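Listing S7. Sequence submitted for prediction.
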Amino acid sequence: MAAMSRSAQTLPARFVLLWAVATAIGLSVSLAGITYVIVVFIALVWEGETGVFAYAISAALALALATPLGISQWLVLRRTRLEIRFWIPATTIGFVAGLPPVLAFLLGPPTPGVSGAAGLGALLGAPIGIAQWLILRRRINNSALWILGTTGAGAAAFALVVSALDSPTVSYLSAALLLASALFGSATGLLFRRLVTDSPGGE
């Protein structure tokens, strides 16, 4: 890829807002949707519906619901001059890799402490960051900071939200998911804009 000028890589301030909103929507839809699918699947198993069809449908729906985060972020990226390909599949793979511990939190016993929630957020943010870093590493300078950023943003978002919860009701959990997703999107959006601005050239 031909080197791009610094001005060509400068993102407008509104990029952060668009990225935050897109990430909040995509991540919330994915987490809420997959949680619902798993709850329905557990109910089917409880009722004795353990056939191959039930497993296949549940797996297909869960995989499909893992894509909104990558899609929503890509819709923002495509408005820039950055030629970033394979963002959706990379983000989906990273999301799926980090999902098990988060689902254990959503479907498990009462809300963990702040440190436990931070750990879960980091376990979700790190795989997403690593997968996306593989796309960004030849396009922006200091791209390894992206992994640290997504990991830290995931930890901070989950910790801040869980610390504010009084009871793990459905309404509180829904609000927590939305707020955590918005915090994650805002932090990573600011970092992405900074990394791009500090990169005078690309691949």
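Caption to Listing S7: primary sequence and predicted structure tokens for the chain studied. The CA atoms of residues 28 and 39 lie 16 Å apart. The first helix runs from residue 6 to 9.
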